[in-house]
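Two proteins follow. First one:
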Amino acid sequence: MKQRQYKNGFTLVEIMVVTAIIGLLAGIAIPSFSKARANSVANSCINNLRQMEAVKQMAAMENGWEENDGPNSIGNPYYRDTCSTYIKGGERPTCPTGAECYYNALNEPATCQSGIASHVLH
């Protein structure tokens, strides 16, 4: 009677199958992670813009600003300085991409200068 001989280790086919499965899973997961990161950056920017709008409205109510007045109107630093007193740290929020965010006049929403379509306050 013959005895079976077992070899330790994996065959080339087994290793190739496992590598293909790992590659397939990575191909599915990486775009999902990238999309989730982009969404979180956009949401963070939009939340910053909402906070800027709230600050602008509080400053307008307390200081009696008119509709066309606002932090960027006629280049007057008074409005920007007044709004900065309502923010902890006194600095205007920025977009997570590093772009500047602007308060704008009271009748216009705060804007992000990143140029990304999803970074817009509606």
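Second one, unrelated to the first:
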Amino acid sequence: MVRRTGGEFRKSSAILPVAGGFQLAGMGQGERSQAFDRRLNRALVYGGVPEHWLAGTQALLVGDTLARYFIWDAKRALDYLVSHPAVDPERIGATGCSGGGTQTTYISALDPRIRVAAPLCYMNSFEVL
């Protein structure tokens, strides 16, 4: 597995805030690790995808879905975004790749505050590509 840690892959993380946008750090990404052990001071599950599998399985076992939590999370981010005086609530868009593309698709269908959506790709397996 190749892990992209810089270069073109991360350029949007630097460009979006400078261009007046923001980037939502999703559950299991960076400081939002859900499987963090404070005693060991490290994550018990590494990377967003394995952490999503763990959380998704736990949700399914209780009759829920992980997608619902991602959608709730994105809606709360929108609540915060529209509360900021520098934000024009009529000009909010969303974009993303992989899980971000999936979230873009869901949130743009379920929240009218998203005026334009440009999912770059959806989550899938390498074999599907």
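SUMMARY FIELD: The two ends are 15 Å apart (CA to CA). The CA atoms of residues 82 and 89 lie 6 Å apart.
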